[in-house]
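Help!! Second protein's tokens look totally different from the first
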Amino acid sequence: MPVRFVVVQSNPDLFWCSCARNIMKEYVDQHEHFVLNWVTEPKYGIDNEVTESKMMKYEFALRHLDDSSMVVIVDCDVFVTDPLVSPLDVWDNFAHKDTSMILSRDAHWQMGVPVNSGVIIMKPDGFTRQILETVVKKGRLSPDMHGNLYNAKTLVDQPRLTFELRELGQLNTKPVSPCEIHSHVTVVTQRVMNSFYRIPMSFWSGFHYDPPESKWRVGDWVSHVTGMDATQRVKAARIFGNGCPGIKDNTARLGKLTTDGKAKVHN
């Protein structure tokens, strides 16, 4: 089955995006029938326009859905760290016959943010088209109306997607388990497809509350270097920058740098 990766680069000048582009291209080139669509957003001068434009990844995916391919939406700060893993493997292991979408928990899934939209695997069907059309049409949640529901004051697509899935009965907003299964949506742990790598001592104290299952370990499919300022993300890009021009291969150090003591370093 063809697999189409849709990646939106919201900050064209930032270093980690070029690293992610190179790593994703190498990954796609290793797998037959994988297609990479790296969508570059225009540069805007107003923050609201920048954040609203993140909906481009949903618009692009919606335009390119067809009955023969699977679509994987990936944030531009997601790095493939195990190229042997395929989204088809994830689908085979966790989807049932009516599954339309697989996404992962957020690190703060027990603190009011049930899912993270950094990596989403979707098959083209009526439910997928409905949810994408709704998210694109309605746009971000209004902080004036919804407050900081699902981090609506700082995030764009993820709060709206979470809200609409809840409205359709496809998501528990007060989950009690790391995984959940609904008629069209399956939620998996971050270790499966969206584990976080955060630089310690960053500006957001919430990093300290990331549960163990959310933290990146050697052998995970991808690492999402989310929730950090540009300086910290550049540091993360240098760590995961294997294959990027001018960047030393630091992958041997990853086991020491992760906060999880069970991580193993590749020989």
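Here's the second one for comparison:
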Amino acid sequence: MYCHVLINSVKMKKVMIIEEEADCKHSLTPIMHSFNPVTTVDELLKAQVDDGNVTSVKKKRIIYSEGKTAASIFYILKGKVKTSKWNEEGKELITGLYHEGDFIGFNALLDSGRYRETAEVIEDAELIIISRTDLEYHFEYNSSFLRKFLDILAANIAEKQEQMLRMAYSPLRKKVAEALLITYKKYNPSNKGEFSMNISRCNLAALAGVAKESLIRTLGDLRDENVVQIKDGKIIVTDIRKLEHLIYCSDGRSNI
């Protein structure tokens, strides 16, 4: 038999993912039922939707917190989410940006069952909640599904490690350019022309790993070099080739 958490209302679903509230107000009761293991990720997501394990989460709400026991992972149906860590001085470093079609929280499955980051909604989101118990059941009875899921996990880890390495040893201009390019590619997958980034300066600075004041100053330089425009608080990438050149040329200067 398989223990599956059945969430009886939208209110309870919200409580489930806002861990600070769940810890002090509610507990969830697993019920027993049997079902056939899925063979694809799409089948897994459909099964969760059919069971009603979908919730809407408002901007600035916490989905899970660093150090908490990982009871679930999440799939983003719509909206935007960031993951971040905080150092001892209270400085935030954004470790990932996520949107529709992304999983979050599953790195904890390989890390003693605890979340290593905090996940926060930065644009109203709709999430599918997948319990850890559910995943373990499917992994146990379907090795092909396990391999497919591990492929997703491996790709996510490799991308994040490459990003962190580039930023750790880059000068200021390259760090800011890298943060802009990550945001551009993440939220503009179709690579359409000029792309407007509706991301706060605080979040962009935390993604780049620089002070907000340094970010603003560098954005001003990039605007003067016609790499970006700034309009109504939004950052518009006007020349993606120049932006990429800033990252990959040796001195962080655009010569094209």
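Reply: Different proteins will give different token patterns, so don't panic. DSSP finds nine helices and eleven strands in the chain.
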